[in-house]
Specification:
219 residues, 8-stranded mixed β-sheet, Rossmann fold, two-stranded antiparallel sheet, alpha/beta, 12 strands
Length: 219
């Protein structure tokens, strides 16, 4: 049984990739900037920060992390998260990575010839990293992120997610509100909802929330 380390947090950040063959892959527009800000905030608060980062050009190596694990695919990120859980059982985990929801049913070997008249690709649901982690390490308090494209009430949506998953908080954001200049989002807990406008303010709000939770639980 892993022994809990005080003030240790796991952060996932960046996109993931799903390879179609040895050359081509599916991914998304995530840069890892939000996860970078979250790591910075908890380092500033002198927490032990373990970051699992998908393909990102941001200099996570320069943050002074307790541990940085670079990964590529969903499966690599899941394996790394479970390994961290087994080794140190962090008090908190923030799942801010933009993980692919669907991956190809199989990967071709080598480079697929461009002379093909067509290439049919079947996508299948990918394992949910946060759910797999929660199932194995229920004592770690979790923060999750939900990105939506359709307009809906973020507080109502957030509360429904929390009831279903048992997470400490969920940060609900909409694609139209995410850019380099700003990042509007709503951080929802069972008792409160906070509207935020930048990646930095999201990170700071998470820092305050988890610091308060640490005081209350002594974790």
């Amino acid at each position: 049984m892993a022994r809990r380390t005080k003030r240790t947090i796991l952060v996932t950040a960046g996109p993931t990739r799903a390879y179609l063959d040895d050359i081509r892959f599916l991914s998304n527009l995530s840069t890892g900037a939000l996860g970078y800000e979250i790591c910075r905030e908890f380092i500033r608060r002198q927490w032990n920060v373990i970051a699992i980062v998908g393909p990102s050009s941001l200099p996570f190596e320069e943050l002074g992390l307790t541990q940085l694990i670079r990964v590529d695919t969903n499966q690599e990120m899941l394996n790394a998260a479970l390994q961290v859980g087994r080794k140190c059982l962090p008090s908190f985990a923030i799942f801010s990575a933009a993980v692919l929801d669907f991956v190809p049913s199989h990967r071709r070997i080598g480079k697929t010839r461009s002379a093909l008249s067509s290439w049919r690709i079947q996508l299948v649901p990918a394992p949910k990293i946060i759910l797999e982690f929660a199932r194995r390490f229920p004592k770690t308090q979790r923060v999750e992120f939900k990105l939506e494209t359709k307009s809906t009430n973020p507080i109502t949506l957030g509360r429904k997610i929390l009831q279903r998953t048992g997470s400490l908080a969920v940060c609900v954001n909409f694609l139209r509100d995410v850019s380099k200049r700003g990042h509007r989002a709503t951080l929802v807990t069972p008792a409160h909802a906070t509207r935020l406008t930048t990646k930095r303010s999201i990170a700071q709000s998470l820092g305050r929330l988890l610091a308060e939770s640490t005081k209350m639980t002594g974790s």
